[in-house]
Amino acid sequence: MENILFPFWMEIDAQNLHNNVEVLKRWSPSSSLMAVVKSEAYGHGWEAVNLLYDYGLRKFGVASVEEAHELRKRGIKGDIYLLGGFFTEEAKMILEDGLTPVVSSPKELQALEELARKADKVIPFHLKVDTGMGRMGFLPQEINEEWWKKWGNNCYLSLRGVMTHFASAESDPAYTHFQFDNFLSFLRRLPENNPSWERHCCNSAAFLAFPEMHLDLSRVGIAFWGVSPWGRKATLPLDLKPVMRIKARVKQVKTLPPGSSVGYGGTFTTSRETKIAIISIGYSQGLFRSLSNRMEVLVRGKRAPSRGNISMDQMTVEVTEIEGVEKGDIATVVGKEGKEEVTIEEIADLAHTVPHEVLCSLGKIKNRMIYENHCSLAK
């Protein structure tokens, strides 16, 4: 798709997203899917959540009350799980927006109970247990008979699910099995074990690698977007397709003589007559400066390496071996062009980070989205 209105933009391939939804559903027909859409759908934009809703998903996980409220404003119905906890002053919005909070502390439970009592309502919640993440959640030994008497059968709070979160599903199978066994042991020790509860522990990596851990519900995030939670270290086991493409236009093409310095700090010097193209995208749009002199973009279907430091709103690439490059041409920063492709995983590897961070960083381009291949498929 060509675009002459913007110097840079994001494209969302709705057809690929629909493919991923169907593939992930088939991977675990006995486990419901929660689409974790925090950080504006991993940088893809809140509009992309509406696509997921169109494709039949009705369970969504967010990090904050603010994110949940944004989804409600956008018409997202169904269950919205508040995965990241909340502050006491936010409890009222939980009730107003009909959210399902995941609780990790007595103070959260107390705030919910006080609110529900005043409103004469019942608030559903999920219990989070820390089986080895060392972050949010009750320690297993904290859920004793006294806890259960006060909160497990509360008149104003309704326990609807129990969850834990894996710390190293992408990198340490042994520790993941250790956490899973701890979680199962915890469930067996509960004074009650209601079959209607949603039990869940899998993130994308665990969902793809350990189908025996799916349980009642799985929290899938990055996999919906066709990006590997392992980066380039492992191939996705399913036919998932990347949803995001990032493109930018060539602002200028020039030829530099040998010995010319390129960019701030002069981190690249030409060794020959070199044709460069200045691309209208930089770290202000989410490209890490650490990718300078390392990453490549696609110009006219060929790889063009970064030359010099990436600037706030520009980067410079070499196009000496690419014929016909001119001002206004489109450079593919993320995506496929002909036989070549630049992936999120590739960029993450070059930046020594995880694909999740790259996606969230590129989400700064959300105000210039273009949707391709979309038709409503809601039933």
For the record, the CATH class of the largest domain is Alpha Beta
Bin the strand percentage.
15-25%
User: Total number of β-strand segments?
Assistant: 19
Oligomer: single chain
How can the largest sheet be summarized?
9 strands, mixed
Here the CATH topology of the largest domain equals TIM Barrel
Mean pLDDT: 93
Separation of termini? 29 Å
Number of domains: 2
| Low confidence ranges | none
Structural class: alpha/beta
Radius of gyration: 24 Å
Q: What name goes with the CATH superfamily of the largest domain?
A: Alanine racemase
Order of helices and strands: EHEHHEHEHEHEHEHEHEEEEEEEEEEHHE
Task: Please bin the fraction of helical residues.
Answer: 25-40%
Q: Helix count? A: 11
Q: What would the principal axes of the Cα set say about the shape?
A: elongated
CATH architecture of the largest domain: Alpha-Beta Barrel
Explain how this protein is built.
With 379 residues, the protein is of the alpha/beta class. It folds into 2 domains: 31-227, Alanine racemase (TIM Barrel, Alpha-Beta Barrel), CATH 3.20.20.10; 244-372, Lyase, Ornithine Decarboxylase, Chain A, domain 1. It is built from 11 helices and 19 strands. The strands form 3 sheets. Strands 1, 10, 13, 14, 15, 16, 17, 18 and 19 form a 9-stranded mixed β-sheet that branches. A hairpin with a 2-residue loop joins strand 17 and strand 18. The chain is elongated. The two termini are 29 Å apart. 43% of the residues are buried.
